[in-house]
Amino acid sequence: MSFSEENIKKIVEEVYLKAEQNCLRDNKTRFAKHVHEVLDEKYNEQLSVKTISRMFDKYIYQKEEVSTPGIVTVDLLCMYLGYENYQDYLNTNSSVISKNEDELPQKNRRTRKMIYIIFGIFFFTSGITIVWNNYNINYNNNETGIDTTKNVTSEIKKDSSKLTEQVKKQEEKIIEQSVKLGIFHNGSLDLNITRKLQENLFKNYKITFIQLSNINAVTLQKLQQGDINSIKNKSSHYYCIGTVSYNFRQAETNTQLIICELQLQYTTYDNEGNFLSKLSNTQNIRAHGFTKKEAQANTILKL
């Protein structure tokens, strides 16, 4: 059984999102109580509010001092998501959980490809040079009557070993790019939009969510203008900060429908505070539904 931190993190994030969608109040403790109540009423299982809150602290709010949960806790969280247990979750999501070379950052894949091309060209040209030199030596020796043979194989091995060492050094320089990401709504992190942006824009990057509770408009504006000192750290290469707003109104043609208008604005900076236009954007999206919740969900799907 693959009981990894990455899998647990994904499970807790899904639990948090599901609880958020089923609670009117945007509050971590309220979400934890909801999960506790569902497990108690629907499955007759007990998982304390405190334990669930600690899981949110560790995997949603990145509080590293919180210990890793045991298999019983993870089984119950999976039950809340509709699975029989953790193993059932793994079996159902095996294609998503399994990792392969395609999930490497694009920059890494391009770098590796370039290294292999250089390796091939260097090896090929080195071989031709050695063979040509060997031919000249043998030709000249035959002219003078001296029977001498150059060891071509040893020369190729020597050059190949040298190039392998160079390739190894190049691969050591490959750094996985990481991003601190946060899209805020009314001063709080909007996890739905943040994760959607992660999937659409930063799929091949290591993501850390920006956790700033009750962030005020002034601080948020400074962050969006490139003043990233308050969230800057050595491990992050890029910082993406944004805001999202939702406006609801009744449809004119069908009064039973609710229209949701979503406005998303985000800006991205590198570690030096330089603005990155290709990773920044403003989007206005509209969708409808029979309730505000449904209209909002349909709007997010369009991102």
Describe this structure in words.
The chain is of the alpha/beta class and 303 residues long. It has three domains: 5-100, no CATH class; 106-172; 178-301, 3-Layer(aba) Sandwich (Rossmann fold). The chain has eleven helices and six strands. A hairpin with a 2-residue loop joins β1 and β2 (188-189). α1 crosses α2.
Question: Which key terms come to mind for this protein?
Answer:
303 residues, alpha/beta, Rossmann fold, 3 domains, 6-stranded mixed beta sheet, globular
Q: How many discrete domains? A: 3
Low-confidence stretches: 98-108, 146-150, 171-175
CATH class of the largest domain: Alpha Beta
Helical amount: 40-55%
Order of SSEs: HHHHHHHHEEHEHEEEH
Q: Termini, distance in Å?
A: 35 Å
CATH fold title of the largest domain: Rossmann fold
How many distinct beta strands? 6
Shape: globular
Average pLDDT, to the nearest integer?
Answer: 78
Task: Outline the fold blueprint.
Layout: H1 5-21, H2 28-43, H3 49-59, H4 71-80, H5 86-92, H6 94-97, H7 106-144, H8 152-172, E1 178-185, E2 188-189, H9 191-201, E3 206-209, H10 217-224, E4 238-250, E5 258-270, E6 281-289, H11 292-301
Parallel strand pairs: 1-3, 1-4
Antiparallel strand pairs: 1-2, 4-5, 5-6
Helix pairs in contact: 1-2, 1-4, 2-3, 2-4, 4-5, 7-8
